[in-house]
Amino acid sequence: MTKDRVMLQAPKKLNAADIRTMPYPGFPTDMQAIFVSILCIAKGTSIVVENIFENRYKYTNELQRMGAKITIEGRTAVIKGVRKLNKATVQATDLRGGAALVLAALSASGKTKITNIEYILRGYENLDKKLNDLGANITKEVE
């Protein structure tokens, strides 16, 4: 039996995008933090409008500590893409924001430390192992 495969290859630099979260079948609010993290290193300026939940941008302060250029205006995030994010010690503020920080750390130069990982562990089983299987270098430190 043969398995079907899809080969994907991302461009060297992603382009900016505008996103508005909406109820199903629109763009899911649960993916908003992940996409903001990705858009931090995209070419150009992106705009993300959160139409479902208020105060969903708490994690952006942590991305800014990594060098992201994000401005929050009410329900709107304006993200000016940077060439590279930098290592930092950051704190997960919630489940989805924590996952966004993991993705940002994977693209950052140097070693990033994420605290409050209980948020991430609660929602993503074996995330470190799964990402390491894809080529990441993640270690989970137990204190």
Could you walk me through the main structural features you see in this protein, from its secondary elements to its overall organization?
This protein is of the alpha/beta class. It has a single domain (about 20-135), classed as Enolpyruvate transferase domain (UDP-n-acetylglucosamine1-carboxyvinyl-transferase, Chain, Alpha-beta prism), CATH 3.65.10. Helix content is about 30%, strand content about 15%. The chain is built from five helices and six strands. It has helices at about 30-40, 60-65, 95-105, 120-125, 125-135, and strands at about 20, 45-50, 70-75, 75-80, 90, 115. The protein has a four-stranded mixed sheet. The chain has a two-stranded parallel ribbon with strand order 5-6. Helix 1 (about 30-40) runs parallel beside helix 3. The chain is globular.
Q: Give the tally of β-strands.
A: 6
Radius of gyration: 16 Å
Low-confidence stretches: none
Total helical elements:
5
Largest sheet: 4 strands, mixed
CATH superfamily: Enolpyruvate transferase domain
Termini distance? Answer: 46 Å
Strand order of the main beta sheet, please? Answer: 1-2-4-3
CATH topology: UDP-n-acetylglucosamine1-carboxyvinyl-transferase, Chain
H and E order: EHEHEEEHEHH
